[in-house]
Amino acid sequence: MTTVIEQTVRPARRWRRALGGILDNPALAIGLGILAVIVFAAVFADWISPFDPLRANPLARYKGVFSGWNLLGTDELGRDILSRLIHGTRYALLVAIVPTVIALGIGGLLGMIAGYIGGFVDTVIMRFFDIMFAFPGILLALGISAALGPGLSSMIIAMVVVTVPAFGRIVRGAVLQVKEEVFIEASHALGFRARRIALRHILPNILGPAIVYGTLQTGRNVILSSSLSFLGLGPQPPAPEWGQMLSSGRTALATAAHVATIPGLAIVVLAVAFNLIGDGARDYLDPRFNKQRD
């Protein structure tokens, strides 16, 4: 009976400890709060959206903010901006998170191989990353998107290619640092296989930096994806994508600035949320921060 009670209490304590750590970290708490609201909007967009985001009403073009039922006004085709903004959260989260996850998987694997094996393999992989770094990220993404054609899938592929080298370099540096630890040398001395050492001893110790950088990169992906959509290389109209909404509203900045300003602010808020989470996660995963909290 005692064992069962202890097994029940310990997870509860861990959850309370984790929640307390988040609440003690303002940046992490605020970032997670903003992201939770955006995720809620994306999941329940069909229920909380006041209008059909694709329904046009030419007689109601360029309504201002708080114009009757159109709380955020209407765009150049008379579509409700709030409804398009809510449905646009799905595109915003998709193009921010999916490329990060894929790039982390590919770049992390290459970086781990380069850092752990070293030698000729390390040289080849790092020189490949150096070639990729020679091209400005936005120009490389533009070239890839233009070559593949406008669309959501081509934009995601372009963003993955651009961000893989950065993840590879971060993971490689973390692996090189962990390799010098005493417990890794002890594992080699005990005759453990290289795969076991890499997966059970090195990988858990490099997840922290990878997660922090991945979160920060997700914020950058919000800006990058919006830039590609603004230039017409992302999801095509009438998709309610924030970058595309910003692009279509720029022609009416003098007469209806809210059409472009509102999706622009949404892009900034989402990017700031991921940056706050990244900064907060860096402090939360820092042992010194945990020690001070204890």
UniProtKB/TrEMBL annotation:
InterPro entries: BP-dependent_transpt_permease, MetI-like, MetI-like_sf, OppC_N. The keyword Membrane applies. The chain crosses the membrane at residues 21-45, 91-116, 128-148, 154-171, 252-277. The keyword Cell membrane applies. Pfam families: BPD_transp_1, OppC_N. SUPFAM superfamilies: MetI-like (SSF161098). It is a multi-pass membrane protein. It is found in: Cell membrane. Residues 89-278 form the ABC transmembrane type-1 domain. Keywords: Cell membrane, Membrane, Transmembrane, Transmembrane helix, Transport. Belongs to the binding-protein-dependent transport system permease family. This is Peptide ABC transporter substrate-binding protein. The gene is oppC.
